[in-house]
């Protein structure tokens, strides 16, 4: 259903421009922001930017594509919240691995309260590597988060008992392998630490000064940050395995959309989310996760859910590239 008069071309292209800017706020592996946008009168195109791919940790581009899927979901949500009806074609060009999605709008329609609320959470959502507090996440909240992933083409399998023990071992093993790989250490050193004048990567003030006390170790960046590590031990945290039916680029893109959807839903519910990607980067530990799914699908990311300590100072936001750096070929055409 479309409300109001036929939209004008300049109005549509401004909507695309705004959606591209909002898409740039999405989470991405090591804050690489590996996407490019092209907005014209005929649509908004999302492409992978291979210059910001983790060539060592992510040679297939799985995490790059998941990151771009999160950006796609952010952009679509921005259009919905602004009262547009977006349509999307995923993997629109079989000849190009970099062409990930083509968005068009088919008219106007009032946003739902849910769409507006989730859109508002885009600027609230953040990554906090510190421990969660002792209170458990309500079961109903976890179910709503799981359903958000399902609604976007992915599954979210809760890990408990022996699987949780195996996850802890796998995460520690992934850290060990990564730290002992000279090429991966070099790559991580490039993307993590310092003040990030390039406006990409993870700044020191988002990395704890010492390893937080958790049942499942987070990524070991090989260097301390400047963030206070927090207090307590994240015993009450819940771990979920985000998975998709297949393991092709289209599945990776869907996984990113599901990641964005369930993360924004969690933020709306007051639940903190920490993605753990190191355990899926290493083939031997990814295979451990695959066995946990018992044939249900392919692992994309591990997500930690918990309640953040309300007395802790907020984590500083990660830097973002300006819009002119994430457009193709460097500038969005004007109407």
TrEMBL record:
InterPro entries: Nitroreductase-like, Nitroreductase/BluB
Residue numbers spanned by region Disordered: 197-218, 313-335
Molecular function terms, GO-annotated: oxidoreductase activity
PANTHER family, per the entry: NAD(P)H NITROREDUCTASE RV3131-RELATED, NADPH NITROREDUCTASE
Protein name per Swiss-Prot or TrEMBL: NAD(P)H nitroreductase
Upper lineage: Bacteria, Bacillati, Actinomycetota, Actinomycetes, Micromonosporales
């Amino acid at each position: 259903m479309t409300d109001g008069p036929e939209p004008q071309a300049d109005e549509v292209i401004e909507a695309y421009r705004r959606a591209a800017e909002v898409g740039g706020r999405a989470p991405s592996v090591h804050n690489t922001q590996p996407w490019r946008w092209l907005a014209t009168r005929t649509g908004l195109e999302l492409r992978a930017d291979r210059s910001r791919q983790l060539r060592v940790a992510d040679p297939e581009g799985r995490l790059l594509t998941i990151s771009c899927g999160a950006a796609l979901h952010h952009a679509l949500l921005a259009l919905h919240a602004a009262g547009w009806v977006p349509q999307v074609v995923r993997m629109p060009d079989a000849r190009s691995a970099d062409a990930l999605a083509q968005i068009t709008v088919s008219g106007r329609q009032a946003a739902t309260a849910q769409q507006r609320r989730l859109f508002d959470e885009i600027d609230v959502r953040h990554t906090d590597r510190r421990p969660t507090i002792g209170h458990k996440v309500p079961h109903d909240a976890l179910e709503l988060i799981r359903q958000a992933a399902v609604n976007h083409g992915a599954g979210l399998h809760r890990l408990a008992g022996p699987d949780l023990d195996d996850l802890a071992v796998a995460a520690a093993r992934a850290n060990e392998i990564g730290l002992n790989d000279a090429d991966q250490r070099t790559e991580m050193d490039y993307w993590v630490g310092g003040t990030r004048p390039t406006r990409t990567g993870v700044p020191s003030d988002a990395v704890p000064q010492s390893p937080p006390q958790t049942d499942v170790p987070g990524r070991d960046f090989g260097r301390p940050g400047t963030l206070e590590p927090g207090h307590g031990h994240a015993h009450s945290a819940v771990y979920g395995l985000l998975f998709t039916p297949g393991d092709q680029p289209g599945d990776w893109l869907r996984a990113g959309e599901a990641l964005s959807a369930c993360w924004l839903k969690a933020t709306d519910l007051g639940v903190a989310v920490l993605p753990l990607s190191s355990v899926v980067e290493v083939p031997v530990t990814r295979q451990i996760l695959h066995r946990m799914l018992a044939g249900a699908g392919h692992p994309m990311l591990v997500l930690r859910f918990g309640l953040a300590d309300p007395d802790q100072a907020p984590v500083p936001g990660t830097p973002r590239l300006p819009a002119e750096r994430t457009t193709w070929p460097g500038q969005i055409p004007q109407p």
